[in-house]
User: Which sequence fits this backbone?
């Protein structure tokens, strides 16, 4: 082997090690946040723990629920498992619900009926 080839191999070996260390550090730091789900609901005394609750329309605050119509046939975004909606969209709705102080309720419906139902205020 020539000297430049040996130097190139040494540099690649060091870059590979640096990449492995960086990747391991990133994975280790990923688990450092608080991942505990928190239930946030308006309290009985009238004070609200949810930071965006006051920004909601009065009708939504009074109902305490946001109804979502969705065609749940598209894993991993939204689909039905054991009779419950699961996937990215229901997970995001849970997070938004904690921030808004309301819960999201999903209704499975065919796509072509969603706009008609919305126009009919369903």
Assistant:
């Amino acid at each position: 082997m020539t000297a430049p080839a040996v130097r190139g191999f040494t540099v690649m070996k060091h870059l590979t090690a640096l990449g492995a260390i960086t990747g391991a550090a990133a994975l280790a730091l990923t688990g450092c946040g608080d991942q505990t789900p928190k239930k946030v609901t308006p309290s009985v005394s009238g004070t609200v723990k949810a930071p965006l609750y006051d920004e909601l329309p009065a009708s939504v605050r009074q109902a305490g629920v946001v109804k979502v119509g969705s065609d749940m046939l598209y894993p991993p975004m939204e689909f039905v498992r054991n009779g419950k909606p699961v996937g990215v969209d229901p997970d995001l709705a849970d997070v938004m619900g904690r921030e808004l102080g309301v819960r999201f309720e999903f209704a499975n419906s065919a796509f072509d009926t969603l706009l008609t139902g919305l126009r009919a205020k369903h």
Summary: The chain has two domains: 1-32, 53-119. The mean pLDDT is 80.
